[in-house]
Amino acid sequence: MNIELLTLSEVDAVSGEKGDFTVRVRRHPRYIDPSKCIACGACAEKCPKKTDDPFNLGLGKRKAAYIKYGQTVPLKYAIDPDACLYMLKGRCRACEKFCPTGAILLDDKESFTDVHVGSVILAPGFSPYDPTGVDHLGYGRWPDVVTSLQFERLLSPSGPSLGHVSRISDNRDAKKVAWLQCVGSRNINRADNAYCSSVCCMYALKQALVAAEHVGQGGEFTIFYMDMRCHGKEFDRYMDRAREAGVRLVRARPHTIDPGPNNTGVIMTYAGEDGKAVREPFDLAVLSVGMETDPASRDLAGRLGISLNAHRFAETASFSPVQSNVPGILVTGAFLSPKDIPQAVTEASAAAAEAARDLSAARGTLAREKTYPPETDVSATDPRVGVFVCSCGINIAGVVDVQDVAEFARGLPGVVYVENNLFTCSTDTQALIAEKIAELNLNRVVVAACTPRTHEAVFADTLREGALNPCLVEMANIRNQCSWVHAAEPEKATKKAKDQVGMAVAKVLGNEPLDKIRVEVVPRALVVGGGLAGMTSALALAGQDHEVILVEKADRLGGNALLLERTWKDEPVAQAVAQLVSRVESHPKITVYKNARITSVDGSVGSFISTLEAGGETREITYGAAILAVGGKESRPDEYLYGEDPRVLTHLDFDQRLKEDPASIRRAESAVFIQCVGSRTPERNYCSRVCCTHTLKSSINLKQAKPDMNVFVLYRDIRTYGLRETLYQKARSLGVMFIRYDLEDKPRVEAGADSLVVTVKDHVLGLPLELAADLLVLAAAIEPADAHDLLHLYHASANEDGFFTEAHPKLRPVDMSADGLYIAGLIHYPKPVEETVTQALAAASRAGVLLSKSELSLSAATSRHNADICMSCLACFRMCPYNSPYINEEGRVAHNELKCTGCGICAGVCPAKAFSVRNIRDDQIVSMIDALTADLCQGPGFSGSQA
Amino acid sequence: MQAKAQETPTPAVEVPVAAPPDWEPLVLAMACHYCAFAAADLAGVMRLAYSPSVRIVRLPCTGRLDHYHVLRAFERGVDGVFVAG
């Protein structure tokens, strides 16, 4: 209720300044009143006009009355004025005639709204590169050349082919599919997009894997690539899986796509690894198109005065990664640079953190909260169930005999009132239900309608309006899971609807009223780790006026950032870090403990208690949320003569040598860089993400200072993702030599008298090359800090590489699975400065949401533990994903309901039945089964036991 | 031993009979709120038809399921249990 959605709207202009903006919003007409639309789909069904469906990218049709796709938010139809017959030709109005709620507004007009806000966040996203007209690719000319986004629609179970992969030309099964990477990316000849789009390698792998699973035997899937850029968490393992599933990766760039016989399929011509030309037929060619900013977003940036860089993305600095050049206007997502979902979600939280900091003085002043009448106590009364059967216009009633269902419901035990409504969810019907509850003393309600996933909260609210506890409602899903899927069999659908209502009534009889569990929030955050991430998080939280305790194990703040010279964009790091340190140390809201560590943790979300050891003293601290930012480190290589020969350095060694003794570096006649030293190996099967960029920066530095120096980079894949790709281009133009090697045939290093000798097999010649090197720089892997003690204290988890695990890799990238804990920085995964700052801001944003409340109300639909019959067998303790069962002082299993989500795994595994989940207890599940089978279990022949 | 075994009365065994042509098995789907139940909703949005003899129970997680629930369903005459999550 505190988010207002303005859809079909565009920002026309922004005036004012930080803290006091007026945003003029242009609202395009929807031609359908969203307050009346119930998304029944009658308008689309009756609309006679078909048009190309932009969501399916021309692969399917939709009506002029439409929803963009099934999960659209808000789920409200709209009319496309460029297709509607009435708007184009002045006659039709079928939608108006058939809309059951009178929601059609064919004379709807464009309007303008002014919105007053303190902060503006721009997240306008990207457009896929359009390969139309790039002649050698044949897109738009040969039917079986599609873009990756079109292929995504083909793969989608809700797409135009229902997930079946077939050729566009003749609809035959597509068994042999090829992806062509870097279409419109890393290309300055045909596309003018010098950058890497960062996501295409992974989505091509995903599409190939999904297609391989779908097509099964006989499928052949090939990805043609330049470098496989799997630089994210678990991405290299994903590539391994794709390989194991038979996906073929070919390092080649097909120069021509020709049509197959009769214009079906395609023939690709490319140079194989041996340099020979290959012509290979495929059923479909998929162009892995890159990301660009949309012209409309660039116009918006122009109107708002937002600076764009040479690549037409919004420009920000590494230490303030979501702040635009206009104070108070924040920028986020693919509008800043191409990025994947985890990065975009993290950045969105970072922007929220900056807005929360800017608006902290006004926090809560506009927040709205609803009030309800006091709840009636129903504990001592007999069940009085009211059943409301929704017709949903004709959505349900057109298939299911709702009168018959209502009649059936009248005969069910406990039911005292039944009503059929045209639309049970309409505001006036809800008010009537609340009145009926009071009038008839109803103490349980069943709504037979659409799905509880969207509407249970609506009816729970209706119960509160009627002075009943919201847990006393159940829904029977007779639309989405009945009338909509059984339209051809109305009688059987009616029988199913009755059974679902019978089960819902049986269940609701057992529902008990539950109060929310209230937890007072300790208004303080703990940040563990005083590096770049920890300091950024602490300042962001303190800036929102929250108290922060910052714990650093070393004797100074700064962490790895103290060892870095410049960001990839050439911003000096030392100065920025020194500023951060002094701001943290002088901030009145931040208490810093150095030489300190956490030695015990108790409590849970909103109220943790820990022991803190600092400088020989022990104290107890309390806090509501914790951000774990304990960092990582550059590993020490055990190969390539590292540690044996002083000419062999890691990146950080090299940076330090360059700072302390630049002459020794400048004397070198030749330098060799070896990539992936300790990364992407069986022992550490991940990419350290930052080393390619670091190497390129260092090699450019060497070449610029001494152009005749021989600089070689020995690599496996160059992974300068996003705009960093420009460094790769620059290094090549300066004459840095790149030689690829394979993991099976790694370079060898020997110490010669005058120089090191590095032997590597040249991938073009197929012969060993001997390189004389005065300097050898190893791109050593980044490892997570050893944080086993912390993991153990917080019952948190790490992946097999030791990086802390997030609650959801894409959608909750900075939350840990236990509530109230957040992660930022290298302990999550290797990442560069600006991503660390972004993630630290995001973690602060998430923690700030929690700390801005004085009290948490947690769902009480949790699992109840009966200690009297518990045998402490530990089955629950081992299985619970949230660690809510624990071992108490007596060595027995006890249960912390504050951590419980009510998933019921404990109840499922407990052999003693010591756990039961409130309002989905065993006896309720059995009552549902029994209600369903009541007809089958009558008569003398039945010998089944009774519950 | 052999003689004694022969004396034991044969227990009553249900003899399988051919299903009538229009018979449809009653299937109880135990669906996780977050995935299978959501998928069943989406099937509705997409108007994908399937057998109307499936009944759906929503669970907070399929981990909530106990083998006892499955046995109960079979004991009471349900023909199939579909655990989806």
Question: Can you walk through the features of this model?
Answer:
The complex is a heterodimer of chains A (947) and B (85). Chain A contains 24 helices and 47 strands. Chain A is α/β, with parallel strands linked by helices and 947 residues long. Chain A has six domains: 29-109, Alpha-Beta Plaits (2-Layer Sandwich), CATH 3.30.70; 127-292, FAD/NAD(P)-binding domain, CATH 3.50.50; 385-512, Rossmann fold (3-Layer(aba) Sandwich), CATH 3.40.50; 520-631 and 785-856, FAD/NAD(P)-binding domain; 635-781, FAD/NAD(P)-binding domain (3-Layer(bba) Sandwich); 862-917, 2-Layer Sandwich (Alpha-Beta Plaits). In chain A, the strands form 16 sheets. Chain A has a five-stranded parallel sheet. In chain A, helix 15 (573-586) links the parallel strand 26 and strand 27 (590-593). Chain A is globular and about 100 Å long. Mean pLDDT of chain A is 94; it is low at 941-947. Chain B has a three-stranded parallel sheet, with helices on both faces. In chain B, helix 2 links the parallel strand 1 and strand 2 (54-59). Chain B is flat. Chain A binds chain B through residues 70-71, 158, 451-453, 477, 479-482, 484-489, 492-493, 495-496, 499-500, 503, 861, 879, 901-905, 907-909, 917, 920, 922, 925-926, 928-930, 932-933, 936-937, 944-945, 947, and chain B through 26, 28, 33, 37-38, 40-50, 52-61, 63-66, 68-69, 72-73, 75-78.
